[in-house]
Queue: 4 jobs
Job 1
Amino acid sequence: MKIIKSNTMYEPDVSIIMPVYNEEKYIYFALESIKNQKTDLTAEVIVVDDNSTDRTVEIASSFNCTILKNEQKLNVSQMRNFGFSKSHGKAILHTDGDTAYSYNYLEKMAKPIIENKYDATLCMMLYPFEVKYPVLPAKYSQSYAFFLKNLPEIFWLKMPMRFFIWIKRWFKNIIEKKRPVSLFSIPDRVEGAAIIVKREISEKTGGWNKPFGAHSDTSYTESVYALTDKVRWIFGVKKYSSIRRLIPVDNSWIPMKIVPFYGLIKKKKLKNRSKMQNDIGYIDPKGKR
């Protein structure tokens, strides 16, 4: 896929907006997955850098990304909105420096939007970044890492739909429209990096209105659904996002998995949570580090 820089509205097919801070371990793989997309679409990748002190910007520049600096001390959601204000693409993808995609992601997710078939497309298959790519946080449980690297990828598959809410929406839609409706045209909340939206719809939402940690993804996606019913779940595409902040640092996760109440009884669950990887990235509920 060709990554371009642009000052002309609608010149890029897709604008990919990526707020980052010290992502040198991850961003190469994230950007490589974009560059390796099998599609004739073009993309501008707008990296909003929060004053990284590592090689993040150097790596992003090597992929011909557009680099913006967060000079106003914006939080994460505001950084996304800032990136959007400088974008030019027909379709919008908000992503992160630790998120990668299958080779067919933009061909199957963005092209139907550009062809005016849908206003938004949703990814059904979500996986941990660490399952596919050779990166781990500074501290981690070796037993957990072993399973991450050796269990079949399908073991880690997460599908975002909340089943009963999804089905309820489906029945409600059928009743309102008084005709059969495809279940896969019924949206549900997804992570921001798992939805691509037509530019005009994204503009009308007003952008990301809640700070990181306050269900900002849900707020954004629900605001999209409120504006259009031309939404479709897309089969056969994969998103990989890092679970570095959730990877345990010791083996206490094992009995917690085997015996559901072990953590509660032994008061280990809270202790384990306190050891989760929370020293890298956006950890403050207000979107600050």
Job 2
Amino acid sequence: MNVRSLDTGAGPFRPLSSERSAARAFRGARVAVCGFAVLAFALGALGSVARPVLAQIAGDVPEELDTVGITEHVDEKIPLDLEFVDEDGREIKLGDYFDGERPVLLTLNYYGCPMLCGLQLNGMVAGLSDMDWTIGDEFEVVTVSINPLETPSLAKAKKQNYLREYGRPEAANGWHFLTGKRLQIDALAEATGFGYEFVPETGEYSHAAAAFVLTPDGRLSRYLYGVVYEPKTVKYSLVEAADGRIGSPLDQIILFCFHYDAEAGAYTPVVMNIMRVGALLTAVVLGAVVGTFWLREHRAKGVDTAGGEL
């Protein structure tokens, strides 16, 4: 007897319950895949709208910066043997903050800066506060003064202010405020491509606003410009710099689907990679549906065979 017909005289042929379940599952799979595609394109569209806004905000910097620039030295290693003094007056080497496992976020500022440095560090605190990671756990932060006349006591006062704003006391061991001599400062600035100059008329420094994302071994991985730091951009820059040593599997998938757009200052969708992930998701969903359907059919045939033997 053909198992699929099951003509009992009660009316026209109706699909088996397993077939109806499979049909519903297939429709559900199509809906899930379509939903994934719509979500992916929606994220891309949202990013295209949000990026110009962030770029505009980040571009609102003083006119003095027109003569000061930054030359990117991506993938070059900074000199980790440079010696500085931390906020507690201890002599350290820059390499003390690179443990080979966690990335480092570096900024060059000066603690007596009347405007731009405060804007940058406040913006960085705001962005880092919205991250689920904590300074000192997944990554380190190092802030170096470009003014050789500034003291560890001033550095400590600034550290306390920003830690209070950050609101996570445990980050005290992970954010370091350094001072140093002109020779050491200039060597670090040259290595990072950070241009600055002293303006005698005002007694201030003219400089740009940027944060440098470094790999656990001290190589420059990413430059983040401006005074606005979008939490996801910072997080994925750190994940990328750590080369998979930090972050969840989902973070790695997102990095596969997005790439950093230096002009936009954010991670933007890679359509081909999104399609690949979508195809993989489709294959997994359909494979699960077909496998479930096959198991049900196999069990149904086993029950029919056992019933026939009786």
Job 3
Amino acid sequence: MKELRMHGKGGQGIVVGGETLSNAFLNAGKFLAVMPSYGVERRGSDVTAFGRLSDEPVRENCMCYEPDYLVIFDPSQLKKPATYKGFVPGGVIVACGTDPEEVLSMGVKPSKLVMVDGIRIAYEVTGNNLTNMIMCGAFCRAVPELPMEALLKAIEENLPKNFQKTSILGAQRGHDEAVVYTYEIHGEHSKKAPAWTRHVLACREPEKPRYEAPWGNGAEKIVTVDTGTWKVVRPVLTEESCIRCGICATYCPIQCIRKGEDGYFRADLDYCKGCGVCAYECPKKALTMVQESEFRKA
């Protein structure tokens, strides 16, 4: 049995992507049991899904701690140590990005690393950051046991008809445009036995929970989270078109848009999640949503 773990953001279809891979493996004669972990269940927040792959039906239904496969649906997850926790040396990583050094610099040792510019493809195909089918296609490129035909059949049989065309196009482009890197890994690695068989788990006080609270701390146990790291697009203001009405600030769901000394309303990019509500509600269309990658180039 092999373990699979998927990391991404809420709203990118991580759960649907896992279910589609499960159905695709079933078409290929294998079994993949998937289980999501939603976290705070908010668009833009971190989402993780787990899977176990076997030639036989899978009964075990819990989190995966030592994955053989990692699928990273969003570039924001590439620099987070939690993404790679427990990754088995010699395993396979499928990542949304273009620079393999971003992954290798985290200290992991994959035998195969597949990179695909999923965000760019997603905006070209669907107009948003929905990378799930793109990463599923790249996964087929990384894992020969899952033929592309099995994935396309799973999409056609299980997704709503109005999503099938873009899903198939995204999956095919993810497969075709993925870049594969292979590495020699020396030495053998055996997975650890479950924690409860290694030592007695002592009772201890849990860590402080982290809540989304960009407007400030409401109590001692609430920790402010920089939700600006969640976004893939940001609002850019055209001052010539702006009438300084403040409607954008009124509709901002997390109230991160504030009036500056010059009278213009601008988003605090440390907390802006790139939802696009401000640009949609602006009566003069003075706000434009621009991909974060454009600012990284600069």
Job 4
Amino acid sequence: MAIIYALMSMFFWGLALFLAAIASRKIGNILTLFWMQIFGFAIGSIYLLFSPNLASFNLLPPFIPVLFVVALLQAIGALAYYKGMVKGQVSLVSPLGASYGLITAILSIIFLKEILRLNQLVAILFIIFGMITISLNLKDLIKNKSIQLLTGTKEGIIAMLGWGVSLFLLIFPSKELGWFLPSIFFRFLIILFLLIYILYSKISFLPKTQKLPFKLLVFIGLFDILAFFSYSLGVSQGYGSIVGPVSSASTLVTIFLGLIFLKEKLGVRKIIGVAAIVGGLVLISI
């Protein structure tokens, strides 16, 4: 059953991240993250009112420090990812951010003593190769012997690290508190972080040049919270080293939508890099 939940999170995250790329290009990464979190939390709260998870709140306090870190890393990763989507191509930033499965798998193997099999080792090498291939400007490297990262690469790597570590940490409260409570609580913390930042920075809560894309943000929030619920269900029942990489294959959905609706083009180098990352993500989950 864990693999089914992992596939569900892959699909929902792919949709959410693609729509977030569109919203970020309209109203910026901060407002996109803030409002999609608001709508996602509101949707989740409706379920909370009718769920038995209310009884688990007395078990929450010991996990608040962990969930605080999860929320902080999630916010940093998402803001970097959305910013990268504004600056660079979806087909570049998406596979880099989606490589968080590599981080989650490695941490699960080290700290949870999950055994690293040969196919997982090969998969890690595939992902690293793919990341280097799509991230570096190889022409400048050959011509000028200087390393120059393509636009959006830094943001994609920050997202990968932030999401990878945070989703690993989310395994612990999910196994003890169940699939729902950790996801809804750290989302509440993200909203608090962003609220404090927006007030401190004196940023307007609404875009100045256009209307708030209400429907778009609602769907982003819905798909995102469904992805987290699916992920939490998966890691509460199975191995993080499997659920994490499978869910991160959401880049397939995001890239596919980017090619169709944003008319992005993939050169040979990017095709090879994306194929290596996707192949690694698939291989690591077998």
